[in-house]
Specification:
Elements (H helix, E strand, L loop, with lengths): L1 E6 L6 H14 L4 E5 L13 H7 L4 E5 L4 E5 L8 H8 L5 E5 L8 E6 L14 E6 L11 E2 L4 H9 L1
Parallel strand pairs: 1-5, 1-6, 2-5, 6-7, 7-8
Antiparallel strand pairs: 3-4
Helix pairs in contact: 1-4
Amino acid sequence: MRVVVVVGLSESGKTHLVAGLIGECKRRGLRTFAIKHCPHGFSLDLEGKDTCKYMQSGADGAAMISSEDWAVVRKLPEGDPDLLTLAERSFPDADVVLVEGGKQARGLRKIEVLRSGVSDVVQTPPDELLAVVSDSGAPPGTPVPVFTPSQTGEICDLILS
């Protein structure tokens, strides 16, 4: 399993890149999963719906299932989740797991997305930086490969290498 974190400021193009990489991985026949890191919290439950009531009542987890999809919401222990452990437990059959967000996750390789007018400076520590994706070229001194957002095939090659 390859786990890669895609980081960058809000509106830099992370979601667009992850969606493109998912499509490229699927064209190559890879089992591909995505995790959206939401440091400010999220809710899949609508207020007043059953699963929301379960969680508000103190359940450690709740699941929703239909004839086509399922989702599980679980409470995490205190602190930021270990994204690698989460990926391994949630998607044990994955070839590739792409995490959007999670710049604080240590020990995982990261692709940083830069966009003119939004961000033009790499913030990821060099030992975690796998590549930079930029719509305006490489920042001076970039020690890793630099791609444009449309180069999903080449980025996928790098992830798999």
